[in-house]
Amino acid sequence: MPGNWWLINRAYFIFMIRELTSVFIAIYLVLLLILINRIAAGPDAYRAYLAFLATPVMRAFHIVALAAALFHSITWFTLAPKGLAVRLGERRIPDAVIIGSNFAAWIVVSVLLAWIIL
Amino acid sequence: MKHSNEPIWWSLFAAGGVVAALMVPVLTLLTGIAAPAGWAREAFTYDRVAALVSHPLSRLLLFVVISLPLFHWAHRFRFTLVDLGLKGARSTIAIACYGAAVVGTVLAAFVLISL
Amino acid sequence: MADPTITLEIFRYRAEQETEPSYQRYDVPYRDDWVVLDAINYIKDRLDGTLSYRWSCRMGVCGSCGMMVNGVPRLSCAAFLKEYYPDPIRVEPLANFPVERDLVIVMDDFMEKLGSVKPWVIRDDTPPLSQGERRQTPAQLDAFKQYSMCINCMLCYAACPVYGLEPRFLGPAAIALAQRYNLDSRDRGRSERQAVLTSEEGIWECTLVGECTVVCPAHVDPAGAIQRAKVSATVDYYKDALLPWGKR
Where are the alpha helices (DSSP H) in chain B? Predict the structure, then answer.
């Protein structure tokens, strides 16, 4: 198979995009760790870092990273039922229920975090 | 199983994937877009942010949010590089990726403990 | 008014007369209830008897007629001409397998992998015939039935980029088949199959591209079978590591 096999068709391409979302998430986490470190260094360091994050390049990165994180979340929750065959008594819980509860948990966690932080 | 330690990396990948899926979008929005743009200024004043981050539960949450998704990235990126044709360097790639995640985890622990 | 026709562009390779494959174009009658296999049979019967290909039941249960139709792994008996008409249809041998001749691929690797997962009920005891058959409840059957529906058509191997990149990968159908027995309440052989499943080039090679499940004509969901195998192998691993006294 050629090295550009993932460009052959749409499904392979979207798969590769899905895998590469992890790179954007990892970079974001490094930036988050730096943010915490800057907070520890005092108010001036914190404000300087925020100003850095406000530059066009960093803002563009975070918009892309947000899109990547959303794509990861959506594909992850949609594929989650494949690993689990949860049975309630005699019957297997339908995939839609597992997917639905994952998305519900996502909303709850996001709202909770936003509420704590804001 | 007995002769393969893949389950360790895979379970870290799975845990990291769940944590990332649940928490990274809202955190990216808040720390990467909202705070620098000056939205909700009162929420992101230094004193408030410093107090929020230093709370022991926050430190724990931040450690989990940073460390586990890093292992998720490491495992996923390792296989992506192999899928892109870098098969010959399999062990080197694995060591580099998981090594980077370990380094990130240690750094996170260090930063969060010494806050 | 001429009857409508459709063009098939078919991969040809005959080792005794050429070193490189080529494509040959044939114009066949277009009927809206014909499938690609009908068109190929027309070619073989009326236009070019030298074309080689596999087929049998022509109704989607034997798994013989797998081919690449416009780059997608399909059963040629399930791909209707009307899905493509009036555009030409490119027909090629199943991807990721060595080509024997024309549309015929070498499936030895696949057959070997199916056998390697010990696809039979493994038990120590053999009760006497008078005791009758081993019975299962509908729920017990339900637990593995989906994975028993595989028709061994190899479309999943053609769709899997991991198999394309690494031919030693155990592959979707073989792992789904292993799960068919692992999840069968009559079976006691899970630990025997684990060695193969968790070996290098076993379940851990899978990166959940998911195309195997998309192309499967029997709704086996091999991607799901592999994910469940990863989960149960991981649970076993931690059980062995943390609770070593429990012997299964």
Answer: 6-27, 35-37, 46-54, 56-83, 90-113
Of C86, C105, C124, the one marking the end of a domain is: C105
Domain assignment of residue C210, given as a range: 108-242
C113: three-class secondary structure by DSSP: helix
Terminal Cα-to-Cα distance of chain C (whole angstroms): 74
Q: Which two three-digit tokens encode residue C58?
A: 């022509």
User: In this structure, what CATH number is given to the domain that contains residue C172?
Assistant: 1.10.1060.10
- Six-digit token string for C78: 């399930």
| Global confidence as pTM | 0.93
pLDDT of chain B, 115 residues: tens digit per residue: 445 789 999 999 999 999 999 999 999 999 999 999 999 888 999 999 999 999 999 999 999 999 999 999 999 999 999 888 887 788 899 999 999 999 999 999 999 998 8
Residue C161 and residue B8: Cβ atoms within 8 Å?
no
The secondary structure of residue C151, as a DSSP letter, is -
Kindly list the domain boundaries of chain B, sorted by start residue: 6-113
- Is B83 within 8 Å of A76 when comparing Cβ atoms? no
Work out the angle between the directed axes of helices A56-79 and A43-53 (0-180°, nearest 10): 80
Taking CA atoms, what residue in C is nearest to A85? C228
In the complex, which subunits touch B with 3 or more CB pairs below 8 angstroms? A, C
Q: What's the length of chain C?
A: 248
HEC secondary structure over C37-83: HHHHHHHHHHHCCCCCCCCCCCCCCCCCCEEEECCEEEECCCCEHHH
What residues does each domain of chain A span? 5-117
Determine the pLDDT at residue B1: 41
Residue A46's φ and ψ, nearest 5 degrees, are -60, -50
Give me the CATH code for the A5-117 domain, please.
Answer: 1.20.1300.10
Residue A89 has pLDDT above 80, yes or no: no
Contacting chains of C (3 CB pairs or more, <8 Å) are A, B
Whether C19 and C87 map to the same domain: the answer is yes
B23 inside 8 A of chain A by CB: yes
Domain boundary among C58, C77, C105: C105
CATH of B6-113 among 2.60.40.1180, 1.20.1300.10, 3.40.50.150, 1.10.3720.10: 1.20.1300.10
User: Looking at the complex, does the CB of residue B6 fall below 8 Å from at least one CB of chain C?
Assistant: yes
Chain A contact probe: residue of C227, C231, C234, C235 with most A CBs at under 10 A: C227
* Residue pLDDT, tens place only, A26-70: 999 999 999 999 999 999 999 999 999 999 999 999 999 999 999
ipTM of the complex: 0.93
State whether C112 and C78 are in the same domain. Answer: no
**Residue A90's pLDDT band (boundaries 50, 70, 90)?**
low
